Amino acid sequence: MLNRFDSPLSRRGLLTGGATLAAASSLPSLAVGQDAIDYDWSDPNDNLNAYVKLSNSLKDHDWVHGWYSGLVFGMLPNKTPDALMGLEGFGLGYTVRQDNGSYISYWKEVGFYKDLKTNQVIESWKNPYTGETNKVMHIHNRMVKGYLGPKFFASAPVGDPEGRMDFKFPNYRASDDPTNPFILNWQTISDQTSVWMDFRGEVPNLLDPKIWVKESSGARMPICEMFEYVVDDNALRDPSLDRVSHSGSWIRLAPWLPWMMMGQGEGRLFYRCTTRSLGSLEELPPNISAYAEKNFSEYLVDEIDENEPSESSFEVYMKENEPAKS
Question: What is the number of other CB atoms lying within 10 angstroms of the CB of residue 40?
């Protein structure tokens, strides 16, 4: 996967952006005698190193922390999107550079659904489409492991030898080619540089609709996640920095969540969130920090088991729940 945040895919062996969720900030100028990095945006290696620097860290095992917050909308055919709930969460992890110049990222994350009026974390939700009250399952992914290299999927197994996954890549010159170079859309205006990183595709649904009748949206799922990062250009080009802060956004189009019990009903979800980095998890909003401390305390600690298998939120749902009675 290109990024994290409650994707229905297992990231096992897939591409990941290792995003830190960061905020643009004032950073020191180049030291005397240092030359700014002159990135060649047509070079996939320059793209790779710049992206890892702004989204995570070029230094091995350098823990980074990030925050996101926004809204989740429901979208019915030919209807205006309706805000259904808030969403706020955080993640933490690091990258490790490989001998071939690629990077492996290790990440864990949580996300809490919130009431639109009170902004408080919710445990149940009144579904306006079905009239039912659903038990909320918050995002909690213990391991999001991914690969990032100079070619999309070229140096890591995609975990799908039968070719059931249909991906489009953010190198728009050849978005259907899984071996195309890791080249992104960089834009610099004045002292700021921005870049997009997105993922679009169709994948098999882990929840078999014949078994998970109320939870599954069908045999296959269209997926779309789009990220934008904005960074101080001088900091990005500073060779003395292993990582830099950035701000950005996350947009996601996805099927109904399993716990919404919408089955194969028409429509989908639209996520719109602001993202930014944190100096530490002490910067989290008090209500989010308190809820995590009470319910997901392991996500507040800079510890991770690199040998633990990567799991998507859909896999976590299957482990923790039984199929609903029709």
Answer: 9
Phi, psi of 74 (to 5 degrees): -100, 140
pLDDT tens-digit readout, 167-218: 776 766 665 565 678 889 999 999 999 999 988 888 889 999 999 999 999 9
How far is the C-alpha of 75 from the C-alpha of 272, rounded, in Å? 13
Q: In whole angstroms, how far apart are CA 252 and each of 168, 183, 202, 255, 273?
A: 15, 21, 14, 10, 9
Single out the residue of 192, 231, 176 nearest to residue 52, CA to CA.
231
Burial class (CB in 10 A: 0-12, 13-18, 19+), 129: middle
> pTM for the whole thing?
0.86
For β-strands 139-148 and 268-278, DSSP reports them as unpaired
Closest by CA position to 225, among listed 94, 119, 127, 313: 313
- Residue 261 CA to residue 255 CA, distance in Å, equals 11
Task: Yes or no: say if 39 and 237 are a contact pair by the CB < 8 Å rule.
Answer: yes
Its sign, for the CA torsion 49, 242, 272, 128, is positive
Closest by Cα among 95, 21, 5, 88 to 58: 95
